[in-house]
Specification:
Length: 212
C-alpha cells in the first residue's frame, strides 16, 4: 500500500484502498477529539469555561494542565480533521474522474471495434433506389438505400454492370436468391425470389450501380 503523499504528487494512482485509509484516519481523529471533549466534560469546564476564579487566581478545583492540554489537542485535531476531509474529497474526485475516463475509453474502443467491423465489409457495387409496395423485392425486405454486396452469384469481385444482375434474375425465376446488403453500416441478408407479380419485371425494385 503506497502512502497518500505519493498519490497526491502523482507518482501513483489513487485507489479505493487509499480512500478507505483516509476515512479510517478521519474516524480515529474524531474518536480522539471526542475523548478530549470527555476530559473537559469530566472537569466541568468545556472548551470555553474559565480557568480562574472570581478573584483572578487559577482555579484549584480543576486539573489545569489536563484542561489546557485537552483544549490544545482539540484545536490541533480539528485542523487535522479539516485537512483530511479535503484529502478525502480530492481522492474521491480523482477516483470518480478516472472511472469516468475509463468508461469513455471503453466506449471509444467499442466504437473503434464497430468501425473496424464496418471496414472489413466488402465495398458495395450497387444501390437500391426504389422499391414498389407489394413486389417480390418488398416482400423479401429490400429497402431504398440498401447497398448491395451480393446478389445471387454476383458479388463485389465479379460485378461488371447491371446486366450481370439482370441475367441472374432471368435465370432464377421462381428460385430464391441470397441477397446481402449493407444497411446502416451493418450487413443484412435476405432471400429474394424473382417472380411474376402485378407490376413490371420480376423484382419490383430499381437498382443502380455504384461507381468507384
Amino acid at each position: 500500500m503506497k502512502m497518500t503523499g505519493e498519490n497526491s504528487s502523482g507518482k501513483s494512482e489513487i485507489t479505493m484502498d487509499d480512500v478507505k485509509n483516509l476515512i479510517k484516519k478521519k474516524d480515529e481523529i474524531e474518536e480522539q477529539i471526542k475523548a478530549y471533549y470527555d476530559v473537559l466534560e469530566d472537569q466541568g469546564v468545556g472548551v470555553e469555561g474559565p480557568l480562574v476564579d472570581e478573584e483572578g487566581y487559577p482555579r484549584a478545583d480543576v486539573n489545569l494542565y489536563q484542561i489546557r492540554t485537552a483544549r490544545h489537542n482539540i484545536s490541533c485535531l480539528q485542523n487535522d480533521h479539516k485537512a483530511i476531509m479535503v484529502e478525502i474529497e480530492e481522492a474521491l474526485h480523482k477516483l470518480h474522474a478516472r472511472e469516468k475516463a475509463k468508461r469513455e475509453l471503453d466506449e471509444a474502443e467499442g466504437q473503434g471495434e464497430a468501425m473496424e467491423l464496418q471496414v472489413t465489409l466488402p465495398p458495395p457495387f450497387a444501390r437500391v433506389d426504389a422499391v414498389t409496395q407489394g413486389s417480390p423485392a418488398c416482400g423479401a425486405g429490400l429497402r431504398v438505400g440498401d447497398e448491395v454486396i451480393e446478389f445471387g452469384s454476383v458479388n463485389t469481385q465479379n460485378f461488371q454492370n447491371l446486366q450481370n444482375i439482370a441475367s441472374v434474375v432471368q435465370h432464377s425465376e421462381g428460385k430464391p436468391l441470397r441477397v446481402t446488403v449493407i444497411r446502416d453500416g451493418q450487413k443484412a441478408q435476405m432471400s429474394l425470389t424473382p417472380q411474376r407479380w402485378s407490376g413490371r419485371g420480376l423484382l419490383g425494385c430499381n437498382i443502380v450501380p455504384i461507381h468507384r
